[in-house]
Amino acid sequence: EVQPVESGGGLVQPGGSLRLSCAASGFTFSSYWMSWVRQAPGKGLEWVANIKQDGSEKYYVDSVKGRFTISRDNAKNSLFLQMNSLRAEDTAVYYCARGGSTFRYWGQGTLVTVSS
Amino acid sequence: DIQMTQSPSSLSASVGDRVTITCQASQDTSNHLNWYQQKPGKAPKLLIYDASNLETGVPSRFSGSGSGTDFTFTISSLQPEDFATYYCQQYHSLPRTFGPGTKVAIK
Lengths: 116, 107
Prior knowledge:
By secondary structure, chain A is mostly beta strands. Chain A is built from no helices and eleven strands.
């Protein structure tokens, strides 16, 4: 079964940092683009970033450029999102999803709360 | 950025009803359009990809159509398990963008 599993969420103060992880199983991780999509409480879905199979291409939504970094470790079937300079508006459930365009499989999400 | 709009933002319907949701893109997206279903507390689920292709395992009562800037999502006969929020999403260009969602509630 294809199953991404996110971890690393939690409560962080404004200006702080957090690193999210996504452990992938059930598919050949190194063959797929991967993405992060977030959802603020009670709001809609927002694509955050994606990364090519070999990590050579990375793209971000404007609101996180320069603050967030997406990366991957194909040897460990893992996807990461390093989040720095966090703001209250970054509070959301962060989903790891397989694909860079069509998000066919999603994890269960991990909640990031930015608050003092 | 391509902006996505959906209408209606919410609707009430009964089991067995035919439900139609529209999605409009601010620019031509060809057929690079997906539809997702999300239930409370759960991750989204892909239902339709490339505007009109039914994802494997998804019931045939779900369908999609359209191209360019105007798209339609239809549930031919609403079932109890279909009460959820539905999102369209374009992948014609970066950043990938979602519509604001349509909440389908029980009448």
